[in-house]
Amino acid sequence: MIAKKNNFKSDYKNDILKEMNSEGIYEPPKTLSFISPSKIDHIPQEEYDQLVEPYREAMTRLEVRMNGLNEDYRKKYRDYPIHNIQARIKSRKSIEKKLDSKSLPVTAYTAKDNLTDIAGIRVICYFVEDIFSILSLVKAQTDLLILKESDYIHYPKESGYKSYHMVLGIPVYRIEGMQYYPVEIQFRTLAMDLWASMEHRICYKGETPDETTDAFRLYSGELSEMERRMKHLLDEGNIEYLMQLCKAAEGGQQTQYTALVQEVVARAHQTLDN
Question: Are 163 and 192 in contact, with CB atoms under 8 Å apart?
Fold first, then answer.
């Protein structure tokens, strides 16, 4: 195999793409015509466009696949595990900044050989159980390569961050034949995404006071507990109680959890209607 897997986090090295190349699985597209690496501190726009083109195709293929799996799951189990999917291609400036932070030459060649997050998608699910349901379907796709797995759900980061990360090799077909391109995929629940979005907004740049860091660790646990209780209510069929929570919020008792409550209620009604 290209990369080892275990139950919680697989070892991964920056030279994974070179390893793929040596085994004939991945190689730079022959249609790219990058200039020879030189002492520059930026990637020319034309080279950036050539670099990301196949990654964009790989990302689109994976997004279509995830939507298809979500629909198949609905047909079989009368339920949707995925709330929404977000996709992005790393900007030129972001690639340059990351290469510089790694003390690597700022070139398209270096980006292609060392970065696995040029393309990425984020899959937002309702509950933790939904994440692992869709994960099992992804791992059953025989044409996709699992290059890396990091389970930050069972093993959260010290900050309180929770998510499940994978890097998948996606087949892209060109004139020269089929080649694999890495796409990073993050699985989160709505609660995890709320936490990560707010933490990024407040703590990402600059020094963060200890009390703020401690508060976010606390919030992470509170959101997880709230999500667990909502899942229990949903499993027990206590839809009316969830609706009461929404009505209380609409009456002025707004909390940072109101939107999540409303999403869960909507999903519950959707499940019942089906």
Answer: yes
CA gap 94, 57 in Å, rounded: 19
Helices (H), 168-257: 190-203, 210-236, 239-250
Arithmetic mean of pLDDT, 22-29: 50
- For residues 246 and 223, is the Cβ–Cβ distance under 8 A? no
CA angle 9, 13, 14 (to 5 degrees): 135
- For 158, the 3-state DSSP assignment is coil
Amino acid at 43: I
**pTM of the model as a whole:** 0.72
Residues 211-232 have pLDDT tens digits of: 777 888 888 888 888 888 888 7
Q: Does domain 16-190 have CATH number 3.30.460.10?
A: yes
Question: By C-alpha distance, which of 5, 34, 29 is closest to 17?
Answer: 29
Residues in the chain: 274
Sign of the Cα pseudo-torsion (148, 153, 155, 156, in order): positive
Could you tell me the residue ranges of all domains in the chain? 16-190, 195-273
Of the listed ranges 124-133, 147-156, 222-231, the one predicted with least confidence: 222-231
Kindly provide the b/e burial profile for residues 100-132, where b requires at least 16 CB atoms within 10 angstroms of the residue's own CB.
eeeeebbbbbbbbbbbbbbbbbbbbbbbbebbe
Closest by CA to 267, choosing from 86, 125, 65, 85, is 125
